Amino acid sequence: MITKASGAEGGYLEKVQPALDAGIPCIVIARPQPLVMGDELLNGQDAFAGRLQRWLAAQ
C-alpha cells in the first residue's frame, strides 16, 4: 500500500495499521518540510519591500 502522511500530524499510523496488521507492506510519503518558518511568508521582492517599509515606519 502506498499512502501519504496526511490528516492530523502523526495520524497516518491509524491509516496504515490495519494494512500492517494484515501483513501488507506500506510505503508512506512524508509531508514536505515548510520552506519558511515564522509569522509571515512574503511572496516576492515587492512584498518584502512593503513589509520592510512598514517595519521601519514602526521603529
Description:
The chain is an alpha+beta fold and 59 residues long. It has a domain of 31 residues. It has a two-stranded parallel ribbon with strand order 1-2. The chain is rod-shaped and about 60 Å long.
Number of helices: 2
Mean pLDDT: 83
- Report the uncertain regions: none
- Largest sheet features: 2 strands, parallel
In short:
The protein has 59 residues and is of the alpha+beta class.
Give the topology, please:
Elements: E1 2-4, H1 12-21, E2 27-29, H2 45-58
Parallel strand pairs: 1-2
Features:
59 residues, alpha+beta, two-stranded parallel ribbon, 41% helix, 2 helices, single chain
